[in-house]
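Sync notes, pocket subgroup
Present: LS, DG
LS reminded everyone that the earlier model was apo-only. Rerun requested with phosphoenolpyruvate included. Inputs:
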Amino acid sequence: MIVVMKADTLLDSPELAKVIQLAESYPGITTQVHRIEGATRSVVEVYLLGRTGVVPTEPFEEFTAVERVVRVTEKFRSIGRHDSGLEAVGFDYNGVYFSQDNLHVFAGVCAVDERHNLEDTFKALREAGLVTSRAGAYKPRTSPYDFQGKGAECLPWVFELAGKYGIRVIAMEVTHERHVDEILAALHASGNATGVMLQIGTRNAQNFELLKVVGQQTELPVLFKRGMGITLEESLNACEYVASGGNRRIIFALRGMKTNLGDPHRNFVDFAQVPVVKRLTRLPVCIDPSHSVGSRAKSPEGLLDIFNVTAQGVIAGANMVLADFHPRPEEALCDGPQALLLDELPRFLEDVQIVRKAYEERVQRIALPD
Ligand code: PEP
Ligand code: MN
């Protein structure tokens, strides 16, 4: 059960204390208090944990400082909207605001390799006005003989370069809890030259111990990628592990499903589910067109499949695009064949803008009233 306080309620207010006191007076009930940043306001919510089925809603509704009480019906309690009873959660990280109402493009290398390649990439991003990127230092590879990522050793110069080119957030995958500590240590040593969004890859979507670790720290936000071979509901439940640990700064990513029916693409593109995730959860939704398509195949009109599926996700309201770029794909140690070229970045961003505008127009002119 979630008690949503009125918008002006402060965390140290006596009204909030009374709600908590009442909640904890029921046997076995504990509470967690969260401040939720919405698109237009921030609200305080009290989560009642335990057997809440026997706790009545009415005594809470009688408090004047309470806006509403929502009974949590689905399994994903913290990230779920619960039949639209709860609004979406936005959050600010290192000066960048994420929500279900806006859109950011994270362009960058799949895996960090040579310093000059990363520098060229960040330089191109700055020229294009982007402050969000991707750069994998820890790579989960299908074969143990493939490049495993540069690891902690590259972090100091990755963060230094990011700071130099004004990059504010880098999506970086972690595959072990040790990586979180290594990233935090290197970030702090760099004087927080940039910010990191911890990426949980599709292969670790149900690595519950790792999910708990990234959920129990609240310094860095989390980009959770759906599992490639499990249902959406299973992925949402797994994502709930992050939120239940206390970290509410989460983005849910679609990246395609592993099925031979997806051929000729690397994965079966699942971006039709963008609006589904937006209505089921309070989280901003990301699409990864690069790992979905997996190649630079193009249509007879000359549009790359990666551009086309990006457009599909954006026209459906995606809030983030995670895309592989590389200055010299032939030198890339991971996923070179699907990388876009740096001189394609302005074209890619223009396409995203065209489609985002069309999405906004659809919402204005086509959407049904409540
Ligand atoms: C990645 O983004 O580098 C990656 C490995 O993606 P996924 O986990 O979706 O395969
Ligand atoms: Mn990759």
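DG: The chain has a mean pLDDT of 95.
LS: The longest helix spans residues 345-365.
Action: DG to write up.
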